[in-house]
Amino acid sequence: MNSLERRLAVALSLSLVLSFGLLWAVGNATINALTEDFIAARLEHDAETVLAALTFVDEVPVLESDRVDGIYRRVFSGHYYTVLAAGQTLRSRSLWDEALPVRQLPPGAVDVGRLDRFAGQTLLLRTAGFEKQGHALTLLVAEDISTVSASLRRFDIAFAVATVLTLMALIALQRLVVRRGFRPLDRVTAAVGRLERGEIAELPESVPAEVRPLVAEVNRLLGVMGRRLQRSRNAVGNLAHALKAPLGVIARAAEEQPPGIVDSVARIREIIDHELQRARIAGTAAPGQRFRPQRELPVMERLLHRVYHQKPLRIEWAADPALELPFDRDDMLELLGNLLDNACKWAQSRVRCEVRPDHLVVEDDGPGCPDEELAHLTERGVRIDEGVPGHGLGLAIVKEIADSYGAEVVFDRSGLGGLRVEVRFGPVSSVGACCSSAEPSAGERPPNCSG
Amino acid sequence: MRALVVEDDLELAADLKEELVAAGFAVDLTDNGEDAEHLGGVNPYDIVILDLGLPRRSGLEVLRHWRNAGNRVPVLILTARDSWPERVDGLRAGADDYLGKPFHTPELMARVDALVRRSVGRAGEPLEVAAVRLDEERQEAIVADGERILLTATEFRLLRYFMLHPGKVLSKGRLTEHVYEADEDRDSNVIEVYVNRLRQKLGRDVIETRRGQGYVFGAGRR
Q: How far apart are CA B97 and CA B172, in angstroms?
């Protein structure tokens, strides 16, 4: 059981049940003992009356009937006595011809007991040993306590019912209190979810003091991460800028040189490109930087038409106008851009792109890839060969971005005839799909398998 | 055709200018954002090649200011910052095309050409108006009987501007602005001289004079 709330609720309920059970048991026992003590005290008083009426005449015990209460003469009145003295047994008339169990007791000894089912009555018996006029005697006085027992039982039941009801009410109340107490934590959980989906930039800090340090720390780390990403992206941009200008001069100068130099310059450029691109991957949804396909795709389409202006390309794309993917915008632009670029490079005339909440597909009508190559590209953990100039640089970066989001890249044959690349996002997040194809290589490679 | 090259790498800028001039452009150069914004605001360029990392004012800012002021000049961004997010943002800021550095010069020239043609609504097709065909590679005009006529650089620029705007009245001032660089001597009478030379080479009625308004190329003879 990992929920604090449930743990708390169970522990509190358990302690409530235990203390109420104890309360009930003690209360019950006390009331019963109290009643019994009270009646026993009355019986002691009765015993003294009987004792006063007892005299020994010629060593024979005699009870002067008129000195004891008339109630002892009424049959089964509920009040009884029995005297054992000098080998004789005197019984009250109320006993009729029943006998009560009497045990001889030495003077001073007292024994209190119960007798159930005596002529339909429950009796409390008090037996005591006395000495009177030099004779040891045992006197038993009994009283019917059925009425008192019945009210006691009623009280017991009422007490139990009240106890259980109060217990249930308290448990319910305590549930409510716990629930309310944990509500701020629910808000934090919900906020974390929204943060994950990129809906908010940081967690609200209006939370209970117990979790505030945690929330504050998360926010601080978010800030640090965001700034670090921004810094490294800027640094990467500056580095690219700084490197590319001299490289451009070299490339232009190399245009008049033997092809080997041009290739080397191109290769240097690709290495720089790739490493810089890799350094830019955020790999998480940056708050407030969600990817909106509907907003970005038209611009990307325009860009691609410019780049491939010498080709009659039809770029079709489909995405729900309201779709927002909870991924870093720059990462998604880079991923989709590379897939689309690759597709356009190989396409004869058509490129199709589809973005859905959980996947995106990019496909083209180019030459495609041989099946074994497709299977190889799709394998998890396979790094697309970027060592060969002109091969798969774009797809390599696509795979790396996908990896950093836990997404899967699947290469397949397209219905259009060329390559179909699908990026499947993990179950946690939702993403759309787009189209793709492999890149051509400069020369002898199978068409469309770009690295 | 007049081009503005905004580039702070002077060596690259010089190379670019050379290529563009060879392709028949009158080229103005500047190496900072402020001057670029001013030049683009006062001169009717047919294309601007804009770097982004500029001293004094960034290229994107210059571009946004132009667009906000209603300046629709075709702009090609030429920058080392060519990641997809940067390219998308560049287009969104109003650029018409985006090319990363380093680049292949033929690719740049093809993109510039495509942009210029798109901006006058003539994408792709070879220029052919009023039985005159322009060979832009060799900067020669080909007339009806297949004869190739050599053109000087200025004649070529003027003829191409005429042919990109056929049937429209073009004033001497407008022709001057599109054919000459900013620091060249701009006597509009020189236009008359070049118009006459083109008439001598291509035939008198190829260019019509509209008194007080300007010239019309290929009116009624298309």
A: 30
Chain B nearest-CA residue for A237: B81
Task: Indicate the length of chain B as a whole number.
Answer: 222
CB contact under 8 A, A250 and B79: no
Q: Do A309 and B98 touch (CB under 8 A)?
A: no
Residue A315 neighbours by CB distance under 10 Å: 21
Please name the residues in contact with A210: beta carbons below 8 A apart, sequence gap of 6 or more.
none
pLDDT for residue A266 = 79
Q: Give the nearest partner residue to A303 out of B83, B98, B105, using CB atoms.
A: B98
Sign of CA dihedral A406, A407, A412, A417: negative
pLDDT, tens digit, 9 for 90 and up, residues A228-245: 888 887 787 778 777 877
Q: What percent of chain B has pLDDT over 70?
A: 93
- Is B87 touching A (CB cutoff 8 A)? yes
Cα(A402)–Cα(A408) distance, rounded to whole angstroms?
A: 6
Q: pLDDT tens digit string along A408-434?
A: 888 888 888 888 999 998 764 433 333
Query: Prior bond to B102 cis, omega within 30?
Result: yes
User: pTM of the entire structure?
Assistant: 0.59
> Nearest-CA distance from A222 to chain B in Å?
22
A-interface mutation test, from B8, B88, B125, most A Cβ less than 10 A away: B88
The answer to whether residue B119 scores a pLDDT higher than 90 is: no
Do residue B97 and residue A306 have CB atoms under 8 angstroms apart?
yes
Quick check: A310 contacting B, CB < 8 Å?
yes
State the complex-level ipTM. Answer: 0.71
pLDDT of residue A204: 85
How far is residue A253's CA from residue A247's CA, in Å, rounded to a whole number?
Answer: 10
CA torsion, ordered B84, A332, A451, A258, to nearest 10 deg: 10
With a cut of 70, list the residues of chain A below it in pLDDT: 1, 283-289, 379-393, 427-451
Q: How far apart are CA A404 and CA A378, in angstroms?
A: 16
| DSSP bridge pairs for A138 | A84, A129
- H or E element in which residue A11 lies: helix A4-52
Q: Among residues A297, A394, A290, A299, which one has the least CA distance to residue A342?
A: A394
What's the rounded Cα separation, in Å, for the pair B32 and B54?
Answer: 5
Geometric angle at alpha carbon A262, from A258 and A267, rounded to 5°: 145
**DSSP H helices in A143-289:** 146-196, 212-254, 259-280
